[in-house]
Amino acid sequence: MLLKFSDGDSRFVTIDDTNLNVRNNEELLKSILAGYVKNRELINRIDDAQRYNEIRTQSSRQVWEDFQNLVSDPNSIYTTKNYYRDIKIINVAILSQNVATIDFQAEITNPTRTEVTYKKYRSAIEYDFRKQSNTYADIMKNPTGFIVDKYRVTQILDEKGEQ
């Protein structure tokens, strides 16, 4: 059984057979892709470690190691004090069986929200679905076997060429 929960406002649950082909369920696939990007790009200083653990279960070894290096780099946004980033997904486009792009807007603030800026980005993801042989806890975090094999982010400039 695979349970799909709605967002917090709708309060409904859909139960599907586990033989579900996630690639054929566009809404579920887009939700998984958007969730990966949001978990990876959000910086709130509250549950970052928990979200990063979920990213680990959904990433290939190379993608995970690259992310670990980025998060631990002293010059990274992830280690910058008083830097918070909320993520709003704008669009998810499935380009092929294993490639998608996700457009998102980052709201960047300080703790008191006296400084707020917005930037738009596009994530390009190469992904697959693989049978899991990890721990029970990892399987519960990633029951579909969704794995990101490549991940890139570029900033989207506005029509004036500004960031």
UniProtKB/TrEMBL annotation:
Which cellular compartments is it found in?
A: Membrane
Q: By its UniProt entry, which SUPFAM superfamilies does this protein fall under? A: NTF2-like
Please provide one cellular component term from the Gene Ontology annotations of this protein.
membrane
* Membrane topology category: Single-pass membrane protein
| UniProt keywords, alphabetically | Membrane, Transmembrane, Transmembrane helix
Instruction: Supply the Pfam families for this chain.
Output: VirB8 (PF04335)
- Which Gene3D superfamilies does this chain map to? VirB8 protein
Coarse class of the protein's main subcellular location: membrane
Cited InterPro entries: NTF2-like_dom_sf, VirB8
Provide the Bacterial virulence protein VirB8 domain boundaries.
Answer: 19-155
According to UniProt, the name of this protein is: VirB8
Tell me the lineage of the source organism: Bacteria, Pseudomonadati, Campylobacterota, Epsilonproteobacteria, Campylobacterales
